[in-house]
Structure formats: structure tokens, C-alpha cells
Amino acid sequence: MYGKMLSINSLNSTYTRQKALPSNYKAEQVSYRLKALPAYDQVCFSGKKSKAIASIGPDVRTDPPDIKKKKYEKELKAYQIKLALLQQEARKQNKEIILVFEGWDAAGKGGAIKRVTEKLDPRGFKVFPVGAPTKDELNHHYLWRFWNKLQGKGTITIFDRSWYGRVLVERVENFATKKEWKRSYEEINNFEKNLADNGAVILKFFMDISKDEQLARFEARENDPIKAWKLTDEDWRNRDKWEEYKEATIDMYENTNNKDSKWHIIQGDCKKHARIEVLKIITDTLEKECDIDPDKFYPESVR
After folding, report:
1. C-beta separation of 98 from 200 below 8 A
2. What is the distance between the alpha carbons of residues 78 and 258, in angstroms, rounded to a whole number?
3. Tens-digit pLDDT profile for residues 119-176
4. Which residues have a Cβ under 8 Å from the Cβ of 68 and sit 6 or more positions away?
5. Based on the number of CB atoms within 10 Å of its own CB, is 23 exposed (0-12), middle (13-18) or buried (19 or more)?
6. Apex CA 251: angle with CA 284 and CA 42, to 5°?
7. Full-model pTM
């Protein structure tokens, strides 16, 4: 379940004022207004334990949430502009933002992170693709390497895989003893509580897909020379342990879904839908944390 190293580039600088919108848009084309969407907890089951558990890792998802391409492109632009503005406001208010991405192999973590960061000021965020610990890191408590990566107040730190590897891959692959990974639930909860008590905004996403969809993506990668590097023998081995990872994920959710660090389970069989959901959750949360009045804060075109 440890991801491969990804290169996440920030494309473009922030849209800081309405006049910074692309000049080639005519007035009637500029509006990126968003239609009302269902509350994301109706889709992602944030904080709703029974539905969340029922949704995780089915063999087949017969009717996954979807979004049309034209609507997706419109909403993607709007949310990215909103997030770019919110990044600057969070910096002014000295807010520390921590985004955690976990999920199945090929569930769309990298694609979601790319859309989150595309319009952000690259000086204000950093993405950490987390792999197996180094020899030096193994000499310390497993949370040590994550403490060291946090960027601090006024910044956004993004983890592509995280400290939850302790209760996922390390549990399933027997890299940690049962006593160690069971103890880690309390350690992780205390770690996140310390961060939240110090003012950090923590958002945790589990990118969820069906087993059938994962197979389709694996096969597509295998046959695409541009994406073949994303698929390894380890991915296939992890797939063979689907039920074990599913059980570990449910235990993770039940033990670490807390008031100040909730899990948002994103149904990712449709990549476009999943990306919009992630952006919506982040922007909605930052509006509340920064005490934003959307009607006054945003340009009229994205309200």
C-alpha cells in the first residue's frame, strides 16, 4: 500500500483578484458559479460510521457517483480559484493546514493531489510522497519522520500516504507486531490531537474504489507505456490481500475518526467526481476555519 514517488508540480500562480481571471474569457463565459451539490457527508459518509464501513472496498460498485465532463471542468476551475484565495487567507491568519491522503492502490490519490495543488502558490505548500522508512528513520519512533515534515503555521502540508501506514501496510505485511499496531491507534490520536490543539486544521481522505475498478485501472496502466511505471509487482500482491486491507481500513476508521480529525471516505470509481469532492471538502472547511463570508470574500464569478 505504500505509494510510489510522485512528482507534483504547481502549475500557475494564485488567482488573487477577480481581474486575474483569464483574459480570453468573455464576460458571459467567466462565471464559474457552482450549483448546489449534495452535502458531501451524504456522499463521503464523513462521521457516519455504519454507512462508511458499508461503503469501503466493495467487489463491485454498481452505481458510482459521476459527473459530466463539462460540469467537472467548470467546477474544477471554480474550486481551484477558491482554494487559491483561501490559501492566501489561511497564510495571513497563520493557519496550519494538514492534508492526509490514504486509499487503495490506483484509487486516485495522486490525481486528487495534483488538482488540489495546481493553482496554489508553490511557496506555501509541500507534498510528501511517503514510502517505506529509511534505516535512519527506523531508529526512531515511527511518528518521528512525520513530525519532521510538517511545514508549520501559515502553510499546507500534504501527505500522499502517511502515519496510517502503521495500521495498514505494516499491519497487513507484519512489519509491525500486533501489539505495536494496536497501540498505535492511541499514539496517532494523541499525535493528531496535539496538532489540532495547537491550531492545525487536519483533513484526512481515504480514496475508495471497488475491487473491480482497481483491476480495470491496473490493466489500463499495464498497457499504457506512459503510465506503466505506476504499476508494480507489489500492487498485485496487495490486491491479493484485499480483504485483509479492507479489515485494516475499517479498524482504522473506527479507531481514528475523531472530532478534530475526521475521515472523509471518497468514492473514487469516478475520478472526476472524487477530485471535486476533495476540493469541496477542503474549501468548505477552510471557509469555516478562516471565518469566511463567501458572498464578500470571493469574486462574484465564483460565489
Report:
1. yes
2. 30
3. 999 999 999 999 999 999 999 999 999 999 999 999 999 999 999 999 999 999 999 9
4. none
5. exposed
6. 30
7. 0.83
